[in-house]
Specification:
Blueprint (H helix, E strand, L loop, with lengths): L22 E5 L2 E4 L4 E4 L2 H4 L8 H12 L12 H13 L3 E6 L2 H16 L9 E5 L8 H5 L4 H4 L9 E4 L6 H5 L5 E6 L2 E2 L5 E2 L2 H13 L3 E5 L23 E4 L10 E6 H6 L13 H14 L2 H18 L2 H4 L3 E7 L2 E6 L4 H9 L2 E2 L1 E2 L4 E4 L7 H15 L1
Parallel strand pairs: 3-15, 5-6, 5-7, 7-10, 10-11
Antiparallel strand pairs: 1-2, 2-3, 4-12, 8-9, 11-12, 13-14, 14-17, 16-17
Helix pairs in contact: 2-10, 3-10, 11-14
This protein binds pyridoxal-5'-phosphate (PLP).
Pyridoxal-5'-phosphate binds next to helix 4.
């Protein structure tokens, strides 16, 4: 029986099924509950706490920002932290401009607006459609939910944003057939799909998407909210494929746990966007931007990324035997420190049993146990966590 309860005894709206523990502290790679029990955390707040808990760089960035008394100014005014962060992100990715917002879904919504704005500079009213992929997840707002391939998330809230077509990335020719020069404004893809069970899209698929978008004047959007910023061992997941998008979405780990999203927009798309086309009250405030700059500097450090790759292959080499060795494991997939263990049954009992043994993991779809440890977690803790999960699966 699952011990998860829908916010029992809590004034929180019941949209989550919580385990009963109340978490009170974070230390390194571990969360600590009210009873003083430590849990090795392979969820990292769903890929957010890439540097773990209680991070000195984050603490000093917060303190420095607070010393100036500047948490928020709104976007009525320019501030140095936002401009410096935008410059850093562009330097690390591709020539363009950056729009800051407050979450992954907001980044997706903004990207759809920018892509339409740009597509309409040569297309007509018709050129507004989005092509998304089977297995995708882009957020829970009306535009991003429309581009998310999860019937259970969508059905109760329809109608969503119209004009989204889904293609199966494994079906040859499906993308070619869906990208229409007169109708398609954007193609959106996660280079490594996260929520649907950790699926690495083949480089050839991303390359074909790039060719089609360039030939048919559609914007290529890569959603790296989960797989970006070091998670796969490259700073950006798409770098392994050599394909550059027109818009790149970032969020989860960007500001070290403070809410922040970003859209990096190519120069060509940026030229189509005018003052007033989009806005946000909070996006890119000086406190979050200062923290994000410290986080991105650390995540983009080549020796840090080397470490992620090395520990990622360690995890991969442990996991690769599981489908043969453990009868409940069907398949393992992943790259860097983003892995999915597909099992033969619902993941609920496995997630609960792992927690009882001191390991936190999160499911990705009904059958996949997802591992998103902090990118800074040392090899020994990774091996310990994998050991616990293996025991549970045995
Ligand atoms: C989590 C996620 C989002 C949504 O981010 P929120 O901050 O929860 O709105 C979008 N895209 C991907 C790939 C994600 O993993």
């Amino acid at each position: 029986m699952s011990t998860r309860v829908a916010s029992a005894g809590s004034a929180l709206l019941g949209v989550y099924r919580h385990p009963p523990q109340i978490m009170v502290e974070g230390r390194g790679g571990a969360l600590v509950d009210e009873g003083g029990r430590r849990y090795l955390d392979f969820t990292s707040g769903i890929g957010v706490n890439a540097l773990g808990y209680d991070v000195p760089e984050i603490r000093s960035a917060v303190e420095e920002a607070l010393e100036r008394g500047l948490v928020h100014t709104s976007n009525l005014f320019r501030t140095r932290p936002a401009e410096a962060l935008a410059e850093l992100l562009v330097e690390l990715s591709f020539p363009g401009r950056v729009f800051f917002c407050n979450s992954g879904a907001e980044a997706g919504e903004a990207a759809f607006k920018f892509a339409r704005r740009w597509a309409r500079t040569w297309g007509g009213e018709e050129k507004h459609e989005v092509v998304a992929l089977r297995g995708s997840f882009h957020g829970r707002l009306f535009g991003t939910l429309a581009a998310t391939d999860r019937p259970a998330y969508r059905a109760p809230f329809e109608p969503l944003m119209p004009g989204v077509r889904f293609v199966d990335p494994d079906e040859p020719g499906a993308l070619d057939a869906a990208v229409d020069p007169d109708r398609t404004a954007a193609v959106i893809a996660e280079p490594v799909q996260g929520e649907s069970g950790v699926r690495v899209l083949p480089a050839g698929f991303l390359d074909r998407a790039r060719q089609l978008c360039s030939a048919r004047d559609a914007a290529l959007i890569f959603d790296e909210v989960q797989c970006g910023l070091g998670r796969t061992g490259d700073l950006f997941a798409h770098q392994a494929s050599g394909v550059t998008p027109d818009l790149l979405l970032l969020a989860k780990p960007l500001a070290g746990g403070l809410p922040m999203g970003a859209v990096i927009v190519s120069e060509a798309v940026a030229e189509a966007v005018r003052p007033g086309d989009h806005a946000t009250t909070f996006g890119g405030g000086p406190l979050v931007a200062s923290v994000a700059r410290a986080v991105v500097r650390r995540l983009s450090d080549p020796s840090f990324l080397d470490g992620v790759r090395a520990r990622g292959s360690l995890v991969g080499s442990v996991l690769k035997d599981w489908p043969d060795a453990l009868s409940r494991v069907r398949e393992v997939r992943g790259r860097g420190l983003m892995w999915g263990v597909e099992i033969e049954e619902d993941t609920g009992a496995v997630v609960d049993a792992a927690r009882e043994r001191g390991l936190l993991v999160v499911s990705a779809g009904p059958r996949v146990v997802r591992l998103l440890p902090p990118l800074s977690l040392e090899a020994e803790s990774l091996e310990r966590g994998l050991g616990i999960l293996r025991e549970v699966l045995e």
